[in-house]
Write a structure and sequence with these properties.
A hairpin with a 2-residue loop joins strand 11 and strand 12. It is globular and about 60 Å long. The protein contains 5 helices and 27 strands. The relative contact order is 0.13. With 378 residues, the chain is mainly β. The longest helix has 15 residues. The strands form 6 sheets. Strands 1, 2, 3, 4 and 27 form a 5-stranded antiparallel beta sheet that branches. Strands 9, 10, 11, 12 and 13 form a 5-stranded antiparallel beta sheet that branches. Strands 22-23-24-25-26 form a 5-stranded antiparallel beta sheet, with no helix packed on it.
Length: 378
């Protein structure tokens, strides 16, 4: 997974890989690009970011590149014709987003792929007041912070999406964040699914396990977290917590009944220090100056696995090499690009062929391209 950091005041942003609970080090001014000032909501699909202004009803797109490193390329044109007033935008499939207005309860589904956006559903009437939307396999989860109400609504395709009164149930009020957490099960292609609830005012939280279309609370975590986190993102069971003054921390969910320490985030692991908007670096908390006031960054997850990613039987490195194979690169070119030995690449390729149950590189390339890897992936 990647994280995208955006400064609404300056319009500058950058992306960073988040793997195994770690960010890379050494951001420079060149890593930050201009995405335009004032965007309130940011959502991602498999290969694009969408920036949205709910007051003006305008949007802008950016392209995401996942190859060895993560990069985001700003779009030049502001898109008009969007309805104003959407208060939540959430990814519901690799290329689909739900737009929801809290005051009206209206929603629509849009498709964003390869730099092209279009609406694919009529206007949908949902309950008004939802403050959070998260995606689970075959379902969308809705939560109302003030009333403590939630809903688990089946979602398979945009044309048949409806929300009924039977979807609604009670849950504790007051949570400021709801985060869907997906984690691969070791040795199998299956995934475990949880919902992390967090209250930034108190540091209280809870973990819910998702099974068969239902959520079951597995543990209350009163006071288990530091208070004050502004953004939380999840990847493969790892959690990244971010605060607007530049403090970040990592945590992890290891079982459906974790001890509080397993997912607490009391100790920061990174500080984003910004001498000015165009000079930002990532340093250790003990060695970096405090970030100035006014650096109001948004931490957004990129390519969050709202569905099982292609080839879940492969490791991240194997999937990366398969993508390069699908692009027609030789073992020598892959080794040079990844800065690894040719023998290492050959071993990975052999493992990929065995796991995909194909006989040669040409078949692996064909299978990968049919699943969206290769030249068409940006």
């Amino acid at each position: 997974m990647g994280l995208f950091f955006y400064n609404r005041a300056t319009g500058r942003g950058t992306a960073d890989l988040f793997r195994d609970g770690k960010l890379r080090e050494g951001w420079s001014a060149d890593d930050f690009k201009d995405f335009g000032q004032g965007w309130t909501l940011i959502a991602s699909t498999l290969d694009n970011l969408l920036f949205y202004d709910p007051v003006k009803g305008t949007a802008r797109l950016a392209g995401i590149a996942h190859l060895g490193r993560l990069d985001v390329f700003p779009g030049k044109e502001t898109l008009k014709g969007f309805s104003p007033g959407w208060t939540a935008i959430t990814q519901v499939s690799p290329h689909e987003l739900i737009f929801y207005g809290k005051e009206s309860g209206n929603a629509v589904i849009g498709r964003l792929a390869s730099g092209d956006f279009r609406t694919i559903s009529p206007k949908i009437q949902l309950k008004h007041g939802w403050s959070h939307i998260q995606s689970f396999p075959g379902y969308l989860f809705f939560y109302d912070t003030q009333q403590g109400l939630a809903a688990m609504t089946p979602y398979q395709e945009a044309s048949s999406f409806r929300q009924g009164l039977g979807d609604v149930f009670e849950i504790d009020p007051g949570y400021s964040h709801m985060v869907a957490v997906w984690q691969p099960t070791a040795g199998t292609p299956a995934w475990k699914h949880w919902l992390l609830a967090y209250d930034s005012k108190t540091g209280n939280g809870a973990v819910f396990e998702f099974k068969n279309g239902s959520l079951v609370k597995t543990q209350d975590l009163a006071g288990a977290f530091s208070s004050g986190w502004d953004s939380i993102a999840a990847s493969d069971g790892h959690l990244f917590y971010y605060r607007r003054d530049g403090i970040g921390a990592a945590g992890r969910i290891d079982t459906c009944r974790p001890a509080p320490a397993a997912i607490s985030s009391r100790e920061p692991i990174r500080r984003i220090s910004c001498a000015q908007s165009t000079r930002c670096t990532v340093v250790r908390p003990s060695s970096g100056p405090s970030s100035p006031s006014g650096w109001r960054s948004t931490c957004s997850a990129l390519s969050h696995p709202t569905v099982t990613p292609p080839f879940p039987e492969l490791t991240d490195r194997e999937r990366e090499i398969l993508d390069l194979i699908a692009r027609g690169q030789s073992n020598v070119e892959i080794a040079d690009y990844l800065v690894v030995s040719l023998k290492t690449v050959r071993n990975h390729v052999s493992n990929i062929l065995n796991k995909l149950e194909v006989v040669d590189r040409a078949q692996a390339m064909d299978v990968a391209r049919r699943k969206g890897l290769g030249p068409g992936r940006r």
